[in-house]
User: Fold this.
Amino acid sequence: MDNVNYYNQSELWKDNINNRELIRFQEIIRVVPRNISSLLDIGCGNGQLLKFLLQQLEIPNLFGIDISLTALKIAKNMAPNAIFLYASADKLPFEDKSFDIIIASEVLEHLPYKVYEQTLKEISRVSKKYILITVPNNEDLKRTYIRCPYCGCIFSRCRHLRSFNEDILKVLFKNYQFKVKILREIGPITRLYPKIILKIAIKLKILSLISHGHPVCPQCGWRPERRNHIYKEHRNNIKRKGIFFKFDFFKKFISKTTKPWLLCLYERNDG
Assistant:
């Protein structure tokens, strides 16, 4: 299943904003410069972030683009005062320096080969002043891998294709005359269990990676049936059997803490 068809699945866009996402939105609001009058949200999805921006900031010209017509339909109702366009991040239909700030939140990790490189160029071209990026924080992609039970293809259940850390973000737009203004970890403190613990949990059917997210095999199109039922079943298993997940005291000794996202604000430096 290609990206366009994948992101046109209606089930991807039905969920309401959760507490984790709300924290990410609040962090974005804190660092958005106040001297802007135009903003473009790349990969805007169902418009939740733009809705939040409309509620919190006075920005007269808000735009969003996405490759999902399904998401855009929801977005137009979610944030009616914003303008939404069907477009790809690597082919932005705007003139040079059209927007004071470009936001790409949880987008870059999903972009295919060549699309990713061209997207960085396009973001730099269209931004007049600032670029704001959020990505998963130093993600271990292998933790997201599952094997398709139909064709054997190994893929990321959340469709992530690359991982980012602070060193990568520091130089991400260096060749496009943008310098780092703010770089920080954001989000609630979470705990990552050692890989051996996760393997044991999966082996004992305490945890199923297939039940998380909306996995669809990119090679044959397989997807888990009765996903909600499977998720509920494994959630109950975690409660019933999950000795690794039950005791906060035990967690402190077998897991490390981190924050889920990195946020980076870049400023144009033409001089």
Q: What stands out?
A: The chain has two domains: 3-139+159-189+258-268, 192-254. Residues 144 and 187 are 19 Å apart (CA to CA).
